[in-house]
Design goal:
The chain is an alpha/beta fold. It has 3 domains: 312 residues, no CATH class; 187 residues, no CATH class; 356 residues, no CATH class. It is 48% helix and 10% strand. The strands form 5 sheets. Strands 3, 4, 5, 6, 7 and 8 form a 6-stranded parallel sheet that branches. Strands 12-13-17-18 form a 4-stranded antiparallel sheet. Helix 6 packs antiparallel against helix 7 and helix 16 packs antiparallel against helix 19. The longest helix has 38 residues.
Length: 904
């Protein structure tokens, strides 16, 4: 339904009006995927016109004359067919040219690219095929009854093209209507051949087995066989006559240029019987004068073909019995389907209509909406949809509109924003995008054209619905957003290829309503988990303590290798587990995952949050962006002595996906900024001090990035400049060591400011409270050998006592670490055990011992205990690193007293 406004003063009212499901559009009004599909189709028709040149001489090749326009529901397949007809009727009007005009030449043809280049090439293509394509009446298979004679349906449409008045007015021809006796005789001959073929089609298409009379059935079979023996030759000859007859009024001669006939067939994938019969029909009537343009979803097309062959095997009694036989039957049907489609529709004969680019979807504005109605882009509408607000939550509100969950640009500082855009641009010549979409936003807005239009109208409907009272305005605004997101999520689930159990679980068990009729997410049992997707960006290897030739290098050390891995974050993949069957899971399609994450974040902003079982957020949502890897040789563990221990750098257990999106975006910009040679070190030549300086910088930047997201601004990581002791000062300073210590003190100041904000503004289990938990439990572990192999790196937590004096907030944090030393020790031990348990050696040992039916469980835990004891013996040679003095130690050779004064 289109939206119209009724303007009474400043009041806006939503009034629904009918709008067509599909219609033709001029070139400039088509979305980019539809433009590309139409461009390919018309280019194919130009090639088909060139193929059809000649006198129709006999050819020795077997011709495939079908094209498949594929795409999901609402991708614009029907729009391509309708727009193609409009382009063929009047290509100048279709391209927006004046009558008799030509496309304005580009300043330089080499400069034109993208839509402009396609428009220029399309002008040439349409001019070449003007008058040479006869577009038959489209065939929509959805309303066609079962058992319809598709061959007769085709022939009737060809005959209708002969019967139609020849009102061609192109400049290339111009005889107009049938006027001369020669034309009338030619038309009569072609019409007669077609009429004869139509009568014969009933014998070939009808099922003679339905006749009970044996003699009549035999006569029909013989008649059908006689007709089919020369049907293809007679059909080809008839098409030649039709093409010549239709060419005469256009070009004034039956020689030279010839027309081709095109039959568009829509909704091919709506019926198994029709789909298979259409494929058979295209093979039966193959002719260079007749082309078929099929519109269907490729996956459904393939699946229905498989089901059709499977049905034939079952009816013929050739299907297998039992589970093994059924698998064999499906395998045969799949091979038969693939072979048939490859012959009828080779891969190069398929035109795929993809979804709209999410960044272009942000700027989408539907056609047909009056300017006086304030037609706005989708992005503007999403900025007006409000998120729920609560008086008990933090102020000011940083996540106020639905767009804040999709567009990261307001959350990033100018320097970070520019660097991130450079890191994610498609090419050097590509323009920088204005908006920066979150991973959830990219997935959610990756929509087919019709679904994108549905989203725009849904947002407009909610914005212009009757406003609530002022007392309920805040909650009502949030509910409007929830209604839009829930509607889009349910549509995405229903139109996805999820198995039945997955869609049922999402719709009925995860998406639920409470007693007030309000939607909430029930994640009890952790049905949704995150599958992490990262790739390696850079590696820093720690040089050995001894150089070649030194005595120290000849000693056998259990710790063989230590490396720091920097990783790139990629797309989000959510896994849905079957709550009724253990071990059964399926990845959520991108569109479903995107809307699920947006709904999750929006519901988390209510007070109280409308998401049950928050265990889905901490571990599953956090990607491993930085990992410290160690190789440990454990002589006392003979089963698996070589253990690779990966210690993941931790993040706060944020409760929304958007918080992780902000952090990963800022970290991606940081990796881009430091990619120009800063981390290029040679472990064979560079000293441990130089490698350690790089590590200290990464560690300090990691903590500062966390503080920026955990703080009240939610993002806005400020890199500063050469004078502000920020990230830029370290990168720009030639003597990097001299800039590193001031930068670390800046990070400590930032941590202290965050502690102060937590103490002053934190309310309940909010984002600041989550930051406090991380500062208390994870930050002191981040400077230990598991993450920082060189003890000097613990200087990150040592307040420089002559620069800022005492800091009450920092004192409070240090006091907590002192009071909870035993607890931090146990957290460290648990962290190491978890890292060893994730190792490949642990997995291999569990798999080997699991063959004993659980009898080897004790052996596995003995191995695990041995590795953990060896780890701490190797890493804690200089004492317990969890002692406060060890946390504040400046270097491994300097003995610093662990009194309170050293912490400030």
């Amino acid at each position: 339904m289109e939206t119209k406004t009724s303007l009474t003063g400043k009041a806006h009212h939503y009034v629904p009006t009918p709008f067509p499901e599909s219609r033709a559009f001029p070139w400039d009004e088509l979305l980019e995927p539809t433009q590309r599909g139409l461009y390919e189709l018309l280019s194919w028709l130009e090639a088909a016109c060139g193929w059809s040149l000649g006198e129709g001489e006999a050819r020795n090749e077997h011709l495939s004359t079908s094209l498949l326009i594929s795409g999901p529901r609402g991708a614009g397949k029907t729009t391509v067919l309708l727009s193609a007809l409009q382009a063929l009727r009047d290509w100048r009007a279709f391209l927006g040219l004046k009558p008799g005009g030509r496309l304005e030449a580009e300043a330089s043809e080499s400069v034109a690219s993208g839509p402009q280049a396609m428009r220029r090439d399309l002008c040439t293509t349409l001019e070449r095929i003007e008058g040479r394509v006869v577009w038959l009446e489209p065939l929509d298979l959805e309303p066609v009854p079962p058992g319809a004679n598709l061959l007769a349906t085709l022939l009737v449409r060809v005959r209708a093209a002969l019967d139609a008045p020849q009102d061609d007015t192109s400049s290339r021809g111009g005889h107009g209507r049938w006027s001369s006796s020669i034309l009338e005789e030619s038309a009569e001959e072609a019409w007669g051949k077609l009429d004869h073929l139509i009568r014969d089609a009933s014998f070939m298409w009808e099922d003679s087995a339905s006749t009970t009379d044996t003699r009549a059935r035999a006569e029909q079979q013989i008649k059908a066989a006689e007709i089919y023996a020369n049907f293809q030759q007679r059909f080809a000859a008839a098409m030649e006559n039709v093409a010549k007859t239709l060419s005469l009024p256009r070009f004034g001669t039956a020689r030279g240029e010839q027309v081709i006939l095109v039959l568009p067939i829509d909704n091919v994938d709506r019926s198994i019987e029709h789909l298979h019969n259409i494929v058979k029909l295209t093979r039966m009537v193959a002719s260079p004068r007749l082309w078929f343009v099929l519109a269907a979803g490729h996956q459904e097309f393939q699946l229905f073909m498989e089901r059709s062959f499977q049905k034939e095997l079952i009816l013929s009694g050739q299907a297998g019995i039992g589970a093994l036989g059924q698998d064999e039957t499906l395998s045969i049907a799949r091979r038969q389907s693939a072979t048939t489609l490859r012959r009828a529709l080779p891969p190069s004969y398929r035109i795929n209509l993809g979804p709209v680019d999410p960044y272009k979807a942000w700027d989408f504005r539907p056609l047909g909406v009056d300017a006086e109605d304030g037609a706005q882009t989708l992005g503007h509408l999403l900025e007006q949809l409000r998120l729920p607000c609560s008086p008990t939550r933090e102020k000011p509100r940083v996540l106020a509109s639905f767009a804040d969950l999709i567009n990261l640009a307001p959350r990033l500082s100018d320097t970070v924003k520019t660097t991130y855009r450079m890191a994610t641009r498609d090419g050097q010549d590509a323009p920088l995008r204005k908006v920066i979409l979150t991973p959830a936003g990219k997935l959610a807005l990756h929509l087919p054209a019709r679904t994108l239009q549905d989203l725009w109208h849904a947002a407009r409907r909610e914005l212009w619905s009757t406003p609530a009272s002022s007392a309920e305005a805040c909650v009502s605004d949030g509910e409007r957003t929830i209604r839009v997101v829930t509607e889009m999520l349910r549509n995405a689930i229903d139109e996805s290829d999820l198995p039945a159990w997955a869609s049922q679980q999402l719709n009925n068990r995860i998406l639920r309503y409470d007693e007030k009729g309000l939607i909430f997410l029930d994640l009890t049992g952790k049905p949704v988990r995150r599958s992490k997707r990262t790739t390696l960006s850079d590696v820093l290897e720690w040089p050995r303590r001894g150089r070649p030739g030194d005595a120290a290098s000849k000693t056998e050390e259990p710790l063989l290798l230590s490396e720091l891995h920097l990783r790139h974050f990629h797309d989000v993949v959510l896994m849905l587990s079957d709550l009724d069957r253990e071990g059964s899971s399926v990845p959520l399609p991108g569109n479903v995952a995107g809307w699920f994450m947006l709904l999750h974040d929006a519901l988390m902003l209510f007070e109280p949050p409308r998401v049950l079982n928050l265990d889905v957020t901490p571990f599953e949502m956090s990607p491993e962006l930085v990992v410290t890897l160690h190789e440990l040789w454990v002589d006392a563990a003979p089963h698996e002595p070589l253990v690779q221990v990966e210690c993941w750098w931790s993040l706060p257990s944020w409760k929304t996906f958007v918080e992780f999106a902000i952090f990963t975006a800022q970290w991606k910009a940081f990796l881009k900024r430091t990619a120009d040679g800063y981390f290029k070190v040679d472990n064979m030549k560079d000293s441990r001090m130089k490698v350690g300086a790089h590590h200290r910088f990464i560690q300090a930047a990691w903590v500062e990035n966390i503080c920026s997201v955990a703080g009240r601004k939610l993002g806005g990581w400020d890199w500063g400049d050469a004078r502000s002791r920020g990230v830029e000062s370290v990168l720009l300073e030639q003597e990097r060591a001299s800039a590193l210590e001031p930068y670390e003190q800046r990070v400590r100041d930032t941590v202290a400011k965050l502690v102060e904000d937590i103490r002053r503004y934190s309310v309940g289990s909010d984002r600041l409270w989550t930051a406090r938990v991380w500062l208390q439990n994870a930050l002191p572990l981040l400077v230990l050998p598991e993450f920082a192999p060189v003890p000097a790196l613990s200087e990150l937590l040592r307040w420089q006592s002559g620069e800022a004096g005492e800091n009450e907030a920092w004192d409070e944090l240090v006091a907590y670490w002192e009071d909870h030393g035993p607890r931090l020790t146990r957290l460290r031990e648990q962290m190491v055990r978890a890292a060893v348990g994730r190792s490949g050696a642990s997995e291999a040992l569990r798999r080997h011992l699991g063959r004993d039916g659980g009898l080897g469980t004790g052996l596995y835990y003995d191995w695990l205990d041995t590795v953990v004891r060896t780890w701490f013996r190797v890493m804690d040679q200089e004492g317990d690193h969890l002692e406060l003095g060890a946390l504040r130690r400046v270097s491994p050779v300097q003995d610093v007293q662990a009194d309170a004064s050293h912490g400030h």
